[in-house]
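note to self: the first set is below, dont mix up w the second
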Amino acid sequence: MPPTTYTKCASEEEFVTRLEGLLAKEGLGANPSREQIVKVKRRLEQARELDGIDVRCALSLGSSPPVTEALLLLTRRRHRH
């Protein structure tokens, strides 16, 4: 959560409204379960990882569709752990 979420709030009600808005943006209610939080966290982390991938570095793997080199490295790294 960025610091501006709470530093720009004039009241507690505004802070709560902003927090509920952030939760709703990610598809969560006011009281999400731990499982829901973990799913959203994983989705956001994956989105951040994939955000920096340059699709211009596409590789062709025989008959399979083009895949970026960075995505291949991420996939291989995950399977090792």
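second set (the one i keep forgetting abt)
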Amino acid sequence: MAQFQGTLHGSARTAASRQGTKMSGLAAHLRGWNLGVYVEVQHRDGRDTILVYRTGGSNSPALQECIASLGFEGGDAGQSQRKE
């Protein structure tokens, strides 16, 4: 059963959607030529987390730094951090 869902919109007529389980997670790399973000959704230690990394886009796709970390645990809004 899917724990996570993602939808991507672009020039295609329809959106592309994907699902991830607690085991697989879900990840996407959205990018221009020199700037991008890599987003990971995971389930670790009983809580859902989202990590957002800055990348160098298509020109340099390596993860450069974590710019945001979000967490959700049960009915609690969890912890949110924005890094700059």
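remember for set 2: The two ends are 35 Å apart (CA to CA).
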